[in-house]
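Board notes, transcribed. Complex of a protein with zinc ion.
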Amino acid sequence: MSVLIAPSILSADFAALGDAIGAAERGGADLIHVDVMDGHFVPNITIGPPVVKSIRRVAKVPLDVHLMITDPDKYLDAFADAGAAMLSVHVEVLPHLHRTVHAIKALGVKAGVVLNPSTAVGALEEIAADVDYVLVMSVNPGFGGQTFIPRSESKVRAVRALLDRAGNSAAVEIDGGIGKQNVARVVAAGVRIVVAGSAVFHSPDPERATRELKAAALAGLPATPVPR
Ligand code: DX5
Ligand code: ZN
């Protein structure tokens, strides 16, 4: 697997989401990352299923929906119906994470689990074989434009190692404070899905910013051995 770029529309102009998504796609976006916040799990409120449904109509690439809500189980159906191709849930709010992960898969959607910066990698020990991807938060969730927490780099390595031990080739995704200045390092640590909000949509040219981020991300991949 190469590296997938998932621009987060949280930092886009919500009055012109179609244009923002189009620009990111022209720049090579592989996914569109959609941040759902409820004002309870995180101190911010964003969007729900109707907006995801509208975005689905205009987006050419799959939607990666990140649920930052206290009761994701209640809304899995609604987000799957709205067109999410990937749904990620926070381990911090789910006492029955195994049930939730399998409920997402049963909807025909890729199931991701998310770790906040202060959540130990060990929280994934018993679910590592079951997940389709793991999202490592490299900022405390709630807002775009925050500073990358440096410890996240070693956390990515630890998550990769845990997945490998479980025999699961699931991708590691990173979210928060990523830009072309640090993306190669996290890719070298094992990230294969890169979320970026402000680095793309607060730039004067989101298409170009996406293209440059992708090029910088690919530079972090290990060199492919030359066949002899
Ligand atoms: C934050 C969200 C992120 C956010 C990232 O809680 O989960 O997806 O959009 O924004 P940047 O890339 O600006 O840190
Ligand atoms: Zn996110």
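Residues 8, 33, 35, 66, 175, 195 surround zinc ion (ligand 2) (CB under 6 Å). The mean pLDDT is 97.
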